[in-house]
Design a protein that fits this description.
Layout (H helix, E strand, L loop, with lengths): L1 H7 L5 H27 L32 E6 L12 H6 L5 H7 L6 H20 L3 E3 L28 H9 L17 E4 L2 E4 L7 H11 L4 E4 L14 E5 L2 E4 L14 H9 L17 E4 L2 E4 L7 H11 L4 E4 L14 E5 L2 E4 L8 H6 L3 E3 L24 E4 L2 E5 L3 H9 L3 E5 L2 H5 L4 H4 E6 L9
Parallel strand pairs: 1-2, 4-5, 9-10, 12-13, 15-16
Antiparallel strand pairs: 1-17, 3-4, 6-7, 8-9, 11-12, 14-15
The structure holds norvaline (NVA).
């Protein structure tokens, strides 16, 4: 997930590269160092033996290493706009996009974004790469991918073979956790008792006796009058929904406490979404760890993260355990009804220097001020209303990429924020990526740091 998102663009993966780099660096920098020495100067090289212990961490030898967002950028991956496709209009997309674009998703979901627009985005990103190279940064590009090719998850594919090796109840629970039941996906099958009705909406669970093909069969027969919603529960033995989730009145449901519903996210309108966010409810639940690197932002040994539509507390905890004790993860939050990706909300651009979005105030801002940080409020973005931003807000204007402490890559059209940087003594490197913005990202989103020259330090004492 991390790798895919970081290379695709429209999402930030620098943190992923950093973390992978830090982990890989710990494991292999010793041999990288020795291998380099042994090939670059054979006379001086020490012979390597298989049992020689490798104990020292020498970060400067690791090809992937970035400790923060502002050390001098040496190498970067820039994503690709080629073949960009409109995601199908699922609840996840509904949870993360603006209402004015919902008809666009309904019409074009699964197809490519408008071809002319993508073509312009591709040239803008190429120009951005040229300018980065001109500024002395090595640029890497991923191979273009055909995003229209469908992929399948284990839940939705079937070999048609018997894949249900059950001997004990424990086997059954283990198989259910993997989404495997005694009914395969070989042919449609369902039991009416796995469906429960509320007028034009019908809810169904995949169970021991109802499979996805059966649900699909039902969906086609009942469309367009009825809508079938697949829901699931923490239940190792699902069979018949009505002792698990019993709808007993208009908007009134008995929900079995032993079998919590995983889809506790009844969103129809933006207002629903905002209400749910205020209650701390997001499209991602806490049933398994999940996180998006773009919800984390680094300042040396301190990493800041938000619980968002795409990063849950379990994911943050997973990250915390993997990075302790060297790194400290701080959960911060914002007055933001639609949190997704921290870098257009709270963008750390220097040691103790942060851009804080005035529309999404940080609830813990005093903590930063007490630590002596300078909190800068960026000016309102200048993107015109008629320019499509299918996947983000206009605040991509503050989604900038620091080339070092004194150089920032910023949009050529965003003259107000350029002035702000200049007043901070930061030189602006201007590139226009307006069409690339439409696909969901600014400079920080489109890039993944491979290497920044610097050392690991603490900036938050
Ligand atoms: N989802 C956020 C961040 C995008 C980088 C926004 O739209 O502002």
């Amino acid at each position: 997930m991390l790798r895919v998102r970081c290379l695709r663009g429209g999402s930030r993966g620098a943190e992923a590269a950093h973390l992978i780099g830090a982990m890989v660096g710990r494991a292999v920098s010793g041999w990288v160092s020795r291998a380099v020495r042994s090939t670059s100067s054979s006379a001086a090289a020490l012979p390597l033996t298989a049992d020689e212990p490798v104990t020292e961490h020498t970060p400067e030898d690791c090809p992937v290493c970035a400790h923060n967002e502002w050390d001098p950028l040496e190498e970067v991956i820039v994503g690709r706009a080629e073949n960009a496709c409109v995601p199908p209009f699922t609840v996840e997309v509904k949870a993360n996009t603006y209402e004015k674009y919902w008809p666009f998703y309904q019409q074009f979901g699964g197809q490519t974004f408008p071809k002319d627009h993508v073509k312009k985005a591709v040239s803008e990103i190429e120009e951005m790469c040229n300018i980065l190279q001109h500024e002395g940064v090595t640029v890497r590009r991923p191979e273009p991918i055909d995003w229209s090719v469908e992929y399948k998850t284990p839940d939705f594919t079937s070999t048609g073979e018997s894949d249900y090796p059950i001997r004990t109840v424990e086997d059954r629970h283990k198989l259910a956790a993997q989404g495997k039941f005694v009914t395969t996906e070989y042919e449609p099958c369902f039991d009416a008792a796995d469906f429960i009705r509320a007028g034009t909406d019908i809810f169904v669970q995949r169970s021991q006796v109802t499979n996805f093909m059966g649900i699909e069969w039902m969906r086609r027969h009942l469309a367009p009058t009825y809508k079938i919603h697949i829901i699931s529960f923490k239940d190792p033995n699902p069979m018949h929904i009505d002792a698990t989730f019993n709808i007993i009145g208009p908007g009134l449901v008995l929900s079995n406490p032993d079998r919590p519903c995983r889809q506790d996210y009844p969103i129809r309108t933006v207002e629903d979404r905002h209400k749910l966010a205020a209650q701390g409810k997001f499209v991602t639940t806490e049933s398994e760890p999940c996180f998006d690197a773009a919800d984390f932002i680094r300042a040396g040994t301190d990493i800041f993260v938000q619980r968002s539509q795409v990063t849950n507390f379990m994911g943050i905890e997973w990250m915390r355990r993997h990075l302790a004790p060297t790194y400290k993860i701080h959960i911060i939050s914002f007055k933001d009804p639609n949190p997704m990706h921290i870098d257009a909300t709270f963008n750390i651009i220097g040691p103790g220097l942060v851009l804080s979005n005035p529309d999404r105030p940080c609830r813990q801002i005093e903590m930063f001020k007490k630590a002596g940080w300078t909190v800068v409020t960026p000016p309102a973005p200048l993107i015109p209303d008629n320019h499509p931003l299918w996947m983000s807000s206009k605040w991509l204007s503050m989604n900038v990429l620091m080339l070092d402490e004194k150089r920032v890559m910023v949009d050529a059209n965003e003259t107000n924020i350029q002035k702000m940087f200049e007043s901070l003594g930061i030189q602006t490197i201007r590139v226009s990526i307006r069409h690339a913005n439409s696909l969901g990202g600014g400079f920080h989103c489109w890039t993944t740091d491979v290497r920044r020259r610097g050392t690991l330090q603490s900036y938050f004492l």
